[in-house]
């Protein structure tokens, strides 16, 4: 697991890069605000319900949550399941909203 800043992620999105972005918050949180990531709540990752992302094991996967804690857990969990390049969005959507005032 590595870390990525909200600035770096936004720059890459704005540049049009193809990014594998996962949101590990709950559906109600996603409905309130999201940055376009695929929603897979942390509980699904912890119970290994990851068929939707199994094909991303060799690719970079950027994971975020509200503050960066759940996404860090998700990164560590996916690392143990063989994912090679997980990145935790430092500060999560709170940092994103603070920085970019969406």
Structural topology:
Blueprint: E1 2-4, H1 6-14, E2 21-23, H2 27-32, E3 38-39, H3 42-46, E4 60-64, H4 69-80, E5 85-89, H5 92-100
Parallel strand pairs: 1-5, 2-3, 2-4, 4-5
How would you describe the overall organization of this protein?
This protein is an alpha/beta fold and 102 residues long. It has 5 helices and 5 strands. A 5-stranded parallel β-sheet has the order 1-5-4-2-3. The N and C termini lie far apart (27 Å).
Separation of the first and last Cα atoms: 27 Å
Q: Which class do the helix and strand fractions yield?
A: alpha/beta
**How many β-strand stretches?**
5
Q: Low-confidence stretches at least 5 residues in length (pLDDT < 50)?
A: none
Overall shape: globular
Radius of gyration: 12 Å
Q: Percent of residues in beta strands?
A: 15-25%
Observed structural traits:
single chain, 5 helices, five-stranded parallel β-sheet, 102 residues
Provide a compact summary of the structure.
The chain has 102 residues and is an alpha/beta fold. 40% of the residues lie in helices and 18% in strands.
């Amino acid at each position: 697991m590595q870390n990525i800043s909200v600035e770096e992620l936004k720059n890459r999105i704005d540049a049009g890069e193809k990014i594998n972005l996962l949101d590990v918050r709950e559906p109600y949180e996603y409905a309130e605000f999201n940055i376009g990531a695929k929603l897979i709540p942390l509980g699904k990752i912890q119970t290994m319900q990851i068929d939707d992302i199994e094909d991303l094991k060799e690719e970079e996967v950027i994971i975020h949550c509200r503050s960066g804690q759940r996404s860090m857990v998700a990164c560590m969990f996916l690392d143990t399941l063989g994912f090679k390049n997980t990145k935790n969005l430092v500060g999560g959507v709170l940092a994103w909203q603070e920085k970019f005032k969406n």
